[in-house]
Amino acid sequence: MKDVLRELKSLSLKLQRRETSLVDASCYIQQTIDVLTAMKISGGKSTQKVKEGIATGMFKDVELSESRPKINRLQFYQSIIDSLKKRLPEPDLVRMLKPLDKRFWPEKRSALILYGENEVRALAKVLGEPAQEAIEEFRDYKLENKSPGKALQKLQTASKTFLPTSAE
After folding, report:
1. Separation between Cα atoms, residue 149 and residue 114, nearest integer Å
2. Which of 14, 102, 130, 163 has the fewest Cβ atoms within 10 Å of its own Cβ atom?
């Protein structure tokens, strides 16, 4: 349980950061789900210590004796994972916002040429901005390293208004 609490604390602190975007939040939550899924199978640091203690009958100089029913570890982890999955932001919105973040851009120019255009078009339409203008500015931004034009700036600004939490 301590392993889970440690991971949830870390996630909570990341989500509460003022600069955390919706895309960041989605990545942090998915990363935590992945870590907990791995821990569900193999256990975390504290789980390993407990297993060693049970094997020796001692844990931190305290003799162990079984007195209560055990928590079903697999069920506990799965319950936490399921709860986190419900917390993931709207996948379509995150998909539309990712191309605006350079961290997700492909490294090869050939892959970058058309990357994100469908998503930028969809976001522009949702926000009532001229889609073709946004696409052209996005191309100049990603391929020619130009400053974002007016339409693309509006999309980038709007993308920062989608808050991942109401922590503040």
Report:
1. 18
2. 102
The contacts of residue 52 (CB under 8 Å, 6+ apart) are none
111: which 2 tokens?
A: 């892959």
Sorted by sequence, the CB contacts under 8 Å of residue 133 that are 6+ apart come out as: 124, 149, 150, 151
Spatial contact of 82 and 36, defined as CB atoms under 8 Å apart: no
Among the listed residues 97, 100, 150, 165, the one whose alpha carbon sits nearest the alpha carbon of residue 126: 97
Q: What are the angstrom distances between the C-alpha of 43 and each of 39, 57, 77?
A: 4, 19, 10
pLDDT at residue 91 in the model: 87
Q: pTM of the entire structure?
A: 0.76
pLDDT per residue as tens digits for the range 106-142: 999 999 999 999 999 999 999 999 999 999 999 999 9
